[in-house]
Specification:
alpha/beta, ABC transporter transmembrane region fold, Rossmann fold, 20 helices, elongated
Length: about 625
């Protein structure tokens, strides 16, 4: 399945937690120490009722004296102090272990994201993927720290409390067990229903994050078209869905939790009433009744905490399923088990009978064959959707062909490690992406560790040094996310300088000058000429005048090469290329006439019929 996912089966809801355990195990020493502190804290927490029973029955009831009472109170104080200290250690070390686990999980998840092919991202929202990296991972940490805490302390606390009740009054100890099966059955049915709600909540949160990420990235477009109110309505609708689902979960939790508490309180009052009766017939003393009352509360309190634990489990199961959906996705593009290496790369590229389709199944390239010799310039032209971008995406192996093969220096690119293959290739795209950081940091993306002199040399080749020097802090200037503080031409020249530093043998230019002004276009063309020197270059060009010097021009139509050859031959052939060329220059002539007419206050009407604006 192209770009498909292997979801965690709903029939095995704990599979996700089981799968996460290997990521937790490396930190078992820290977890073990935290667990030991937890056990000591739980044991100490069950001792005050016994001490209070001793004070009531042996000190106050039997006249044990003031000093015996002081010793008992000091012992009680020591228990409280010890419980506090071990509780501090437990809290600290379990949270340390939790942070280590989520760091490990987040890094593994991000590492897997990087291995996934572009097909995986074609139909997925960035915000939703970010939600899996942050909120879903933190839910696992919440279970590991707070869930484990509640589970161990709850079970041990219940066991100790029941044991001490049994020591004082066996009859009452059996009475307090009567509601337990009812509570456990109720928790089981509750957890099954609420898990579906929490999974839906996590998905809705992912959708909301995706919408917010899109809107923040596209804030200029929103403002340009005055769509603030419309986008606010859409975000409000998505947020309302999260709110409604969350309220459903809260409603179930708010109803079920107090009902469980009521059952526990009724049982506690029953135990107290039976204890009073046993005192009246001389079976036990008053201090024992007080201890039993406290221990009964200690017995039922962890059941309520265990309910919260199951609530946490459901949240974590929902998050774990979403994480494992990513981790279970097998990358289509994988390195071979026994990769080949290239001794020398001159820039020889061959596409042999290549056909390609995306996940939808519709073929976008049909039996493409081409041989590019080192240093040649290959231009790709054609109407929108002809398959030009799909063509160039096969060379760095962003996608694999459906049929046929792509060769670099005679070696199938599928036999090479992706990192080695892409080390010889650089791309300069129409939409330049710059990272949030300084100019120097963005340039060094082409060559990590490049020195200042190398940066300046690359910038000079790209005609970028002059404007960089005029920036407030020169090469150290922070340019903002995606380079928003720079013009389109400046961003493009930085992209060229980045490619210069990469020093590729194969260069891919995807309409690198289509979105810049005339002055910037001249500077970019000069920079590209220097960059292309001696390199095999594939050029997607919107303006056909920029590719007249290409060695070979490929004309694509509906995913097929319908014409190929140098500019002059294709013009003489009077085919599709010649038609496109003449049409583009006719439009340029119209634009020139209109510009001249404006200067003479004359309106020129083109001799064509344009469709009316709706």
């Amino acid at each position: 399945m192209r770009g498909g996912m292997t979801p965690v089966s709903a029939k095995h809801p704990f599979q996700s937690l089981k799968r996460v355990l290997p990521w937790i195990m490396p930190y078992w020493p820290v977890m073990l120490f935290g667990l030991a502190c937890m056990l000591i804290t739980t044991y100490l927490g069950q001792q005050p009722p016994r001490i209070i029973q001793h004070i009531i029955d042996d000190v106050l009831g039997s006249g044990g004296g003031f000093y015996q009472g002081v010793r008992a109170v000091l012992l009680l104080g020591a228990v409280y102090l010890g419980s506090m200290l071990f509780n501090m250690l437990r809290t600290y070390w379990l949270h340390v272990a939790g942070q280590k686990v989520i760091h490990n999980l987040r890094v593994r998840l991000y590492g897997h994201f990087q291995q996934l092919p572009l097909t995986y991202y074609d139909n997925r929202q960035t915000g939703d993927l970010m939600s899996r990296m942050t909120g879903d991972v933190e839910q696992i940490e919440n279970l590991m720290v707070h869930g484990l805490d509640v589970l161990v302390m709850g079970i041990l606390g219940m066991g100790l409390a029941w044991y001490y009740i049994h020591v004082y009054a066996p009859l009452i100890s059996w009475l307090v067990l009567i509601p337990v099966p009812i509570l456990l059955i109720a928790i089981y049915f509750f957890s099954g229903r609420v898990r579906k709600i929490y999974r839906t909540i996590r998905d809705r949160v992912g959708d909301l994050n995706a919408k917010l990420q899109d809107n923040i990235s596209g804030i200029r477009v929103i403002k340009a078209f005055s769509r603030e109110t419309d986008e606010l309505d859409r975000v409000t609708a998505d947020s309302e869905q999260v709110r409604e689902m969350s309220i459903r979960g809260i409603r179930m939790w708010a109803t079920f939790g107090p009902l469980m508490g009521l059952i526990g309180n009724i049982s506690t009052l029953t135990a107290l009433l039976v204890g009073i009766y046993l005192v009246s017939i001389g079976e036990i003393k008053a201090g024992a009744v007080m201890a039993i009352f406290l221990y009964t509360g200690n017995f039922y309190q962890p059941i309520g905490q265990l309910f919260q634990f199951f609530d946490s489990i459901q949240r974590s199961l929902a998050a774990g399923e979403r994480i494992l959906e990513v981790m279970d996705t097998i990358p289509e593009i994988q390195d071979p088990e026994a990769p080949k290496t290239l001794d020398a790369v001159a820039g020889h590229v061959e596409l042999r009978d290549v056909s390609f389709s995306y996940a939808s199944g519709e073929r976008v390239l049909h039996e493409i064959s081409l041989t590019a010799e080192p240093g040649q310039r290959i231009a790709l032209v054609g109407r929108s959707g002809a398959g030009k971008t799909s063509f160039i995406n096969l060379i760095p192996r962003f996608y694999d062909p459906l049929e046929g093969a792509v060769f670099i220096e005679g070696t199938d690119v599928r036999d090479l490690r992706q990192a080695e293959l892409r080390r010889y290739i650089a791309l300069v795209l129409q939409e330049t992406f710059l990272f949030n950081g300084s100019v120097a940091e963005n340039l060094r993306y082409g060559k990590l560790g490049a020195g200042d002199e190398e940066l300046e040399a690359a910038a000079r080749i790209a005609n970028a040094h002059e404007f960089i020097e005029k920036l407030p802090d020169g090469y150290a200037t922070e340019i903002g996310e995606r380079g928003v503080k720079l013009s389109g031409g400046q961003r493009q020249r930085l992209a060229i300088a980045r490619a210069v530093l990469a020093d590729p043998r194969i260069l891919i230019l995807d309409e690198a000058t289509s979105s810049v002004d005339s002055e910037s276009e001249i500077l970019i063309h000069q920079a590209l000429e220097r960059l292309m020197e001696g390199r095999t270059t594939f050029i997607i060009a919107h303006r056909l005048s920029t590719i007249r010097s290409a060695d070979v021009i490929l004309v694509l139509e509906n995913g097929r090469i319908v014409e190929r050859g140098p500019h002059r031959e294709l013009i003489k052939a009077r085919g599709l290329y010649a038609h496109m060329y003449e049409q583009q220059f006719w439009l340029d002539d119209i634009a020139d006439e209109e510009e001249e007419a404006e200067e003479r206050d004359i309106i020129v009407e083109p001799d064509i019929d344009l469709p009316a604006m709706q």
